[in-house]
Specification:
Length: 449
């Protein structure tokens, strides 16, 4: 078999697709990923030999391809996926970074991690069971995270006699649900991961299906990584001031451009202070350049000596975001401990971390019918809901719909650093107009913002 390293060398100039897989327990997700890797010849010889040895020891006649991704011992023993497994592979047409996420409801938080940077999500459904609650949960997470492409892979078609009617009914139900969530593009593909039907090679058992295989769709789906089309955002990560004999007056602000383009001579605003200046220099890889764009890591030099530190945001004055201390957002709760109204938290946005208080939880999403459960009081693990957070210092957030990089944040437990929730600022499919803001009373420990 061809090694993965050799494949990457052959396709260094091709495009990159980041995609995540999701599916309920026993839907065959790990088998699909294993089949995809195996049939696209993206498995190293020693990996395949190890899988064959384990399969034979279990008394299985054919290699269990799910073992190619379920690497944890607990995963192999239980036959389920627990953690997110990242796999890198390539074909002659495209390079791929695959995030294989768990299917069990208690690991929905891991899907949030895997899908947060994905361009496409593959949601598996068992053809015998159809669309279930966990399927709807995965569709909701994909919609909230603004994943632009969703593939519905109706698996185990061999167990329903490859019936077109079964596939059509499931595809219609899922497409209607996902469309209501605002998913922009949905592609349904009937497959059998175990037998290999329509995964890499077209199935002879489903001649009624004329669409692409899973791999064909992954290779051809349009992918846009044009972060330069968005307004420029530069979170400051580090202040460089060597104060050496060679550079006695050098002061630079290092970080990664989150979006947009920055140019020497451009007027910029530093947030949250609101101070303005002009870019007089951009240093990239040890050289001075006139222009830089996302996602380059650079050092900016400004005309004025402004108090700037880690966590500040530099943006063009003409398109600088507004700052706010009242953050309204949709969150996916990922911690075991509940998130309650009045909770003191830290909010981490790009390189900035500030204290905050959860002032309100207006609603929790009910996935069955997309209705809102008003004022639940708290969110528990795997809940999706709306929150209003008051921060101690202003934050320069964009709407998540406009920028996945600068519109996202984390809520963190200040006591032990545990991540509590992943947040998406602004409106979402779950949002509703709130009646109005009410001033909250001071927190008893002094967290009054």
């Amino acid at each position: 078999m061809t090694s993965t390293t050799e494949q990457f060398a052959d396709v260094s100039a091709t495009t990159l697709l980041r995609f995540a897989t999701a599916g309920s327990v026993d839907d065959g997700k790990s088998t699909l990923v294993g089949r995809l890797l195996h049939d696209s010849k993206s498995v190293l010889t020693d990996q395949m030999e190890a899988v064959e040895a384990v399969s034979q020891a279990r008394g299985q006649e054919a290699p269990d391809l799910a073992l190619l991704t379920d690497g944890l011992r607990a995963e192999r023993e239980q036959g389920i996926t627990i953690d997110v497994a990242y796999r890198y592979f390539a074909t002659a047409r495209r390079r791929f970074i695959l995030a294989d996420t768990p299917g069990h409801v208690q690991y929905t938080r891991n899907m949030v991690t895997g899908a947060s940077t994905a361009d496409l999500a593959v949601v598996l459904v068992d053809a015998r069971n159809g669309v279930i609650e966990q399927t709807r949960r995965h569709a909701a997470v994909a919609a909230l995270l603004r994943v632009p492409h969703v593939v519905l892979a109706v698996n185990k078609m061999d167990l329903v006699g490859y019936q077109e009617s079964v596939f059509a009914a499931i595809a219609e139900e899922f497409t209607a649900y996902a469309s209501d969530l605002g998913v922009p593009e949905i592609t349904a593909i009937p497959i059998s991961a175990l037998a290999g039907d329509n995964v890499v090679d077209a199935s002879a058992n489903m001649d009624w299906y004329g669409g692409p295989t899973v791999l064909e769709h992954l290779e051809t789906v349009p992918v846009s990584h044009d972060l330069t089309a968005c307004p420029a955002r530069f979170p400051v990560q580090y202040v460089i001031r060597p104060q050496s004999a060679e550079h006695p007056d050098y002061r630079g602000y290092a970080g990664q451009i989150a979006s947009g383009v920055l140019r020497v001579g451009e007027a910029v605003t530093v947030l949250p202070s609101g101070r303005t200046s002009t870019i007089v220099g951009i240093d990239a890889l040890g050289e001075s350049v006139d222009i830089a764009w996302a996602p380059q890591s650079v050092t900016l030099r400004l005309a004025d000596d402004i108090d700037i530190s880690r966590g500040d945001l530099i943006a063009p004055s003409a398109s600088a975001p507004a700052t706010t201390q009242d953050v309204e957002a949709t969150v996916c709760h990922v911690a075991d401990q509940p998130l309650a109204v009045g909770a003191r938290v830290l909010i981490k946005h790009t390189t900035r971390t500030v204290k905050a208080i959860v002032k309100e939880i207006p609603s929790r999403l009910t996935l069955d019918d997309l209705s809102q459960h008003p004022n639940p009081g708290q969110l528990v693990a795997n809940d999706i809901g709306r929150v209003v957070v008051r921060t101690a210092e202003p934050l320069a957030l964009d709407a998540y719909a406009d920028s996945r990089r600068t519109g996202s944040f984390l809520l963190i437990d200040p006591a032990d650093g545990t991540t509590l929730a992943a947040g998406m600022a602004g409106e979402s499919f779950a949002s509703k107009d709130r009646a109005g803001d009410e001033a909250g009373a001071a927190d008893e420990d002094g967290w009054d913002f």
